[in-house]
Amino acid sequence: MSIVDTPERRQLRELTRSFVTREVLPHLDDWEKAGEVPRALHASAAKLGLLGIGFPESVGGSGGDLLDSIIVTEEVIRSGGSSGLIAALFTHGIALPHMVAAAGVGIGGSLGGMLGGTSTPGDDDLVQRYVRPTLAGTMIGALAITEPDGGSDVAGIRTTARRDGDHYVVNGSKTYITSGHRADFVTTAVCTGFPGSGSISLLVIDKDSPGFTVGRRLEKLGWHCSDTAELSFVDVRVPVANRIGEEDTGFLAIMQNFAAERLSLATQAYATAQRCVELAVRWCRDRETFGRPLASRQVVRHRLAEMHTRAEAARAYVHEVAVRVAAGEPVVTEVAMAKNVAVAACDQVVDQALQLHGGFGYMRDAEVERHYRDARLLGIGGGATEIMNEIIVKGMGL
């Protein structure tokens, strides 16, 4: 038994698997075609306590920590879900933590109260207005950082927020925003001073704010059940009370939450690899060629062994790093390595799994085909592989 394999976490796995089997699998293909998951799914997940895993009970969550969140993510995919489903259903995992931390509450090993100094009445109010309803499944939140010409350059944000009395006037645009089409509010990174990391702030902007426009739904290679949108802000007036933490502290808040986001993506990567190993083993046992099962051929058996090894090794390393993050250790370099290791394993395993499925693997009826498409984003989102490599070499002292 390990820290990520306790009786309580085994029960959490069983609960998650039951939820996916009952609430997700009968409908996932339809959601892929529709381009989004229904709002009712959020309510169902909240009722079981899955939506609030990793968030303290004091803010409406279900308790637990980063490791419990990882268990849920892993089991959703291992049960037949997808990384696209994770993105759609658990977007609050990147939309809410800044608010919770600014209110002085720790999440999964993070240090509550470190974002923007001490908690203020305004931060507590944001918890009541946005965090609690979202964890209850009645609201959907999104995080808006990426801009059309910004990519991974968080310090280069051009969306501006000019102070005007008790409001900010926001102008700019965001793109590739996960759940941006369905979101009721968006935690938005803005520039509140001169360009640069020292002038980044976070504002919570309501979808129905005048001047806030949700653009076209973006069509993607994968993650089809996760809606993605462009956002536009033209003289949008946002109350100062909707600022998270103190002004100009947003860059630090964003950086501190990257560890959890990157570990979630790493988990999605190795879990996808594990699921594809399972699918490939099942296919190779059942599929016969020239009078023999594929699984009886040495070249196939060895390929499956290599796939299994890569997936399990990635899982072990991600778990090791996650335990350290949950304990509060500053392991920025290790998180970057964990993401890259898991993504590389996923890329190799998913490709080989589809190859073993042959022509059927290329069909939309094959689950492995969906994983093949979905997996491609994991090396881009949350910081591209190249950005992770820069973090790693800096950690090496280069």
From TrEMBL:
Stored InterPro entries: Acyl-CoA_dehydrogenase (IPR050741), Acyl-CoA_DH_CS (IPR006089), Acyl-CoA_Oxase/DH_mid-dom (IPR006091), Acyl-CoA_Oxase/DH_mid-dom_sf (IPR046373), AcylCo_DH-like_C (IPR036250), AcylCo_DH/oxidase_C (IPR009075), AcylCoA_DH/ox_N (IPR013786), AcylCoA_DH/ox_N_sf (IPR037069)
Protein name: Acyl-CoA dehydrogenase family protein
GO cellular component terms, A-Z: cytoplasm
Claim: Thylakoid is one of the keywords in the record: no
Gene Ontology molecular-function annotations: acyl-CoA dehydrogenase activity; flavin adenine dinucleotide binding
GO terms (BP aspect): fatty acid beta-oxidation using acyl-CoA dehydrogenase
Family to which the UniProt record says this protein belongs: Belongs to the acyl-CoA dehydrogenase family.
